[in-house]
UniProtKB/TrEMBL annotation:
Location(s) in or outside the cell: Nucleus
GO cellular component: nucleus
Domain TF-B3 positions: 13-105
Transmembrane segments: none
GO molecular function: DNA binding
Predominant cellular place of this UniProt entry's protein: nucleus
Keywords: DNA-binding, Nucleus, Transcription, Transcription regulation
Protein name from the UniProt record: Transcription factor B3-Domain family
Amino acid sequence: MGESSSSYRGPWFCRVMNRADQLILSIPDDAASKLWGVDKGPTNVMIHTEDGRVFNVFLSASKGKLFFFHGWSNVVEHLGLTKGCLVVFNHVDPTTFKLTNFVDGVIPQCILPKSYDYSSNDVTSTVMIDNKTFNVSIVTSDGKVGFTLGMDVIVSLFQLEVGCYLLFTKGFGIFFYLKVFRKNGVEISYPDVDVDEAEVAPVDAENEVEEHIHGGVSRFVRMAGEDYFRIPDPVSRMAKLDEALKDLTIRFLHLDPPLQITNGTRRERRSNGRGFRYALTSWKKFMKAARIKVRDQVHYSFDENEQVLSVERVVPYVRRSN
């Protein structure tokens, strides 16, 4: 399912087929309008299958919608498409599609376990959507493999709901390409997303302290993620977590009155297998106690002498209006 070498870029779309789709298949309205304009469309298109066959398929219009009609049944018969199959259309040029199909029951699924063994040989993969890359952890639990930390960033960014489609294709090593489809089957491309660029380090940034103050106090800023908080490497060394995991004293100085709690720590094996990185446990409880929400800008400090991690200030995330 490689990208076209052409500069043309039309939206992909997909559909899980029902019985009626074996005779006539509807093109999503959003896709049709982006491809050809409102109430417009070619008379026919060419559909290329992955085995090298090319089919001439005519379009039909009814009640403002466009359908693959005459010739589509030939594609269905050739590929053996039935109810439950997933068909993915890559719009190569204005009158050409590349079709990839997945047989019912063979559609890959990713099951995310509710608990993770972070002491196992977990790895961090690179997931690319268009030309934007994300770091996403891959973990194993009970013999299953799943994408975990980092997927929350993608789900939040694209505002995904139940019923959306995530289509992964494997690149080299642990590099993956991802196509994201709304519930209507139309691809969401990264340029279409209303993105507020973070002015602070994202949750998956390499952990270096932005500011170091004499007297053993380090300050840093992070954008709050949904599922975890990694401790910056220099802070981990100051806390001597490499010697032994321990509970940290946490002070929420931004609250009135300030609140103090203790919070556990855990370790994660680095993606290159050399050494560990460290994170807080029970992050959701931490967020609730600190009144932090996802994508808030959080200002931290760590006092090496007192061995205290403090939240000094929280800047709420505000989505810019158009």
